[in-house]
């Protein structure tokens, strides 16, 4: 499996409009993989309780936050998501000098979910993830397959006031605070000499391996990467193209801007082929804590042919059944050893209907355009509705409890008119 990854973006004032933080990610995964969007309410847990992650069981905490997640349907963690405190996290695969071929441990995707469940700020999420990394390690196949596709992880984490970039290599890590402007990450290390937090032994470990002389200015990306930062900036990389697209709208970045970036094919950000963009997320978080955040998810492949549908945290949110995949419990081939001996059908209701429509868009130009236009119209209507609550707050929380699911039903109604 050739190294492939995702693209994650965050924009903060003064790069955005309206004193908002805009977060976005395309999850690029094997093209046949199903990505579901699921909601878990906040919960209190017993003192001795454990939580079963993808490959291992770990200690549970006393309280977990409500979370909405976009995740490959076969695993416990998430590619991206948000919590009730408006913390957003997305992760990226990174490969460097340190081998990623370790034993099964926590996946980077497990760490995304654990960070969201356990932290109420971006900075606290950095602490949660790095403490878990130190205690349990990271490792295991990141695909529902026996091919041992493994990697280390970088994370982009945001809240109402700032963002953090966290990059890891085994148990070692560095983190950089982003307090304004914009930032994007792809599948390379990006932290250079501005390091705001780090593993206490990270530099000494690099020195002991001969990667750093212990005297020159320490540059995390240069020391821990296969590549120099000059190569990371090379023309044609998705990282560089993403940076250009953010720069193009600097000062005026909105949710629509972020959706357009995620849909961009020429840059490679909207990925096609054996690895493709199987799910997409855009979040809009006002810096004013009195206002709600809005989190848009596709729950379907290819954002160009998908509808970004809104989710808002309110009391009594309902379960998102139309985008939840079938559960196979203890009999799931992922849970049995040896793992991945078979692949069950993980398609959720929206995925099945979207698959049919995507084929029509591919093969019938006129019909396809009408469907796509109707999908865009629905998305625009939803965004107009959300603009009111982003600006003025929530007047009828009960209406929003079913917001995402009702939007999915409207999307499927558009499909049925094809």
Automatic annotation (TrEMBL):
Signal peptide (residue range): none
Q: Which GO terms describe its molecular function?
A: cysteine-type exopeptidase activity; dipeptidase activity
The UniProt entry, under Pfam families, shows: Peptidase_C69
* InterPro entries named among the record's database cross-references: Peptidase_C69
Q: Where is this region: Disordered?
A: 325-345
- Name the Gene Ontology biological process terms: proteolysis
Q: What does the sequence similarity comment in the record state about its family?
A: Belongs to the peptidase C69 family. Secernin subfamily.
The protein's name is Putative secernin-3 isoform 3
In its UniProt entry, the species of origin is given as: Scophthalmus maximus (Turbot)
């Amino acid at each position: 499996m050739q190294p492939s990854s995702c693209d994650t973006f965050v924009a903060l004032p003064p790069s955005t409009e309206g004193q908002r933080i805009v977060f976005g990610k395309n999850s690029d995964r094997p093209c046949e993989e199903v990505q579901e969007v699921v909601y878990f309410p906040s919960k209190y847990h017993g003192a001795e309780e454990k939580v079963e992650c993808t490959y291992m069981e770990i200690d549970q905490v006393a309280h977990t936050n409500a979370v909405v997640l976009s995740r490959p349907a076969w695993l416990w963690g998430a590619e991206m998501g948000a919590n009730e405190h408006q913390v957003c996290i997305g992760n990226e695969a990174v490969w460097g000098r340190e081998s990623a071929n370790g034993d099964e441990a926590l996946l980077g995707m497990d760490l995304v979910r654990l960070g969201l469940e356990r932290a109420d700020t971006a900075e606290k999420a950095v602490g949660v993830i790095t403490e878990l990394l130190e205690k349990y390690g990271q490792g295991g196949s990141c695909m529902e397959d026996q091919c041992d596709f493994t990697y280390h992880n970088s994370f982009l984490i945001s809240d109402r006031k700032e963002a953090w970039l966290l990059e890891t290599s085994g148990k070692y890590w560095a983190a950089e605070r982003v307090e304004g402007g914009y930032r994007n990450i792809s599948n390379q290390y990006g932290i250079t000499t501005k390091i705001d937090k780090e593993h206490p032994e990270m530099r000494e470990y690099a020195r002991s391996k001969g990667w750093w002389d212990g005297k020159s200015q320490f540059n995390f990306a240069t020391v821990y990467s296969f590549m120099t930062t000059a190569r990371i900036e090379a023309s044609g990389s998705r990282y560089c193209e993403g940076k250009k697209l953010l720069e193009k709208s600097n000062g005026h970045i909105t949710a629509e801007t972020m959706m357009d970036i995620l849909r961009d094919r020429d840059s490679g950000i909207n990925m096609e082929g054996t690895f493709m963009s199987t799910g997409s997320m855009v979040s809009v978080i006002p810096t004013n804590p009195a206002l709600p955040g809005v989190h848009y998810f596709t729950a379907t492949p290819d954002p160009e042919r998908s509808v970004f549908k809104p989710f808002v945290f309110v009391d009594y949110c309902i379960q998102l059944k139309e985008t939840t995949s079938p559960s196979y419990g203890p009999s799931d081939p992922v849970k049995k050893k040896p793992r991945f001996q078979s692949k069950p059908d993980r398609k959720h209701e929206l995925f099945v209907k979207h698959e049919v429509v995507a084929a029509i868009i591919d093969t019938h130009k006129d019909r396809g355009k009408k469907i796509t236009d109707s999908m865009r119209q629905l998305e625009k209507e939803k965004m107009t509705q959300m603009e009111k609550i982003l600006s003025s707050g929530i007047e009828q929380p009960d209406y929003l409890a079913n917001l995402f699911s009702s939007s999915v039903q409207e999307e499927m109604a558009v499909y049925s008119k094809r």
